[in-house]
Amino acid sequence: MSDTVAPASGGTGVFAPPSRFRLPWSSAVDARIDGSKLPKEVVLSVRDLTVAYRVRRGMVQAVRKVSFDLRRGETLALIGESGSGKTTLALALVRLLVRAARVTDGTVVYQRDGRAVDVLRVGSNALRHYRWNECAMVFQSALNALNPVLRVREQFIDVARAHGMTNRATAKARTLELLKLVQLDAERVAGCYPHELSGGMRQRVLIAMGLLLDPQVIILDEPTTALDILTQRTVIDLLRRLKEERQFALILVSHDLALAAELADQVATVYAGRIVEYGSVTDVFYRPNHPYTVGLLNAVPTLSGDFRSLDSVRGQPPDLIDLPRGCSFLPRCPFGTAECEREDPQLVSVVPGGPSIPGAGSHTAACFHAPAVAKSFSRHLQAGQAEDVASPDIAAERGAR
Ligand SMILES: Nc1ncnc2c1ncn2[C@@H]1O[C@H](COP(=O)(O)OP(=O)(O)OP(=O)(O)O)[C@@H](O)[C@H]1O
Ligand code: SF4
Ligand SMILES: [Mg+2]
Question: Which residues are in the CB-under-5-Å shell of ion ligand 3?
Answer without folding.
Answer: 87
